Prior knowledge:
Blueprint lengths: L16 H7 L4 H4 L12 E5 L5 H9 L4 E6 L2 H13 L5 E5 L12 E7 L8 H10 L1 E20 L3 H17 L5 H12 L3 E11 L2 H17 L1 H8 L5 H15 L5 E12 L3
Parallel strand pairs: 1-2, 1-4, 2-3, 4-5
Antiparallel strand pairs: 5-7, 6-7
The protein binds S-adenosylmethionine.
Amino acid sequence: MADEPLRHELYTHGHAPAVVRQHAQRTADEAAEFLLPHLRPDMRLLDVGCGPGSITRGLAERLTAGQVVGLDLSRETLEGARRDALARGLHNLRYEEGSVYELPFADGAFDVAYAHQVLQHLRERDLALREMLRVVRPGGGVAVREVDWSTVAYWPRDPWIDRFVETHLRTWYRNGGEPQMGRHLRALFNGAGVASLQVTASVWCYATREDTVEWGESYADRLLTSPMGERPIEYGYASRSEIESMAAALRAWGSHPDAFWVFTHVQALGWKAR
Ligand SMILES: C[S@@+](CC[C@H](N)C(=O)[O-])C[C@H]1O[C@@H](n2cnc3c(N)ncnc32)[C@H](O)[C@@H]1O
């Protein structure tokens, strides 16, 4: 269809309920911590690839005299985000369908453009960053946070979980994304020619029963109900019964009393020349 948002790749996670449900637990406090000290209440902020909007909403709650726009290419996910904003009476927040590759906004329309866990799913990361910089005013900021999946460390080891990580990364690359995006952010921003840049890192660490059960169950559900499990089968990387074994291992790991999982996320905050 001519009016479909532009894509150059397949989105590895897809928009199955198991995926969107987990994304909807994210908060601005955690996911945008590196950006929050730089925000003023009257700013105009764009959240690119906003998904179900739980982070976007937290940003709108801070920019009380400003404007927040969440943009995503999933119409269905945006409908849920719009209902949520309406129910909370957030009049400074709106959602638009579109692609980061051709943002439907004028040059300099925002003070800040933000993206959380989005560039890792794109084939043309430099194009996306250039678009984000284009819609930011001179002196404005672009804030990006991305995982580096090759930093995963977990315990207790299970050969099916090792196999899951290997298969997941292989599939992700075949889809066109970059699961090690975090380590590339400094180079990406330097390549885009920002005037100044701050790169920092943080971790997601699961070390309570509640957190490990949620993580294990969520990835098991994703494997069984979303493209995360379907595409490896289609690509010939795993059989259905192997996907089921990975899912069972993730569930069992999650309820193990010693279960522990950690991986690194990298944050880049770049400022456009005045
Ligand atoms: C991993 S989710 C992150 C969602 C949200 N930022 C968060 O952290 O909870 C990635 C999001 O990027 C969106 N996305 C993927 N490709 C996109 C594109 N070309 N333009 C805009 N959004 C895109 C997906 O639809 C999905 O909602």
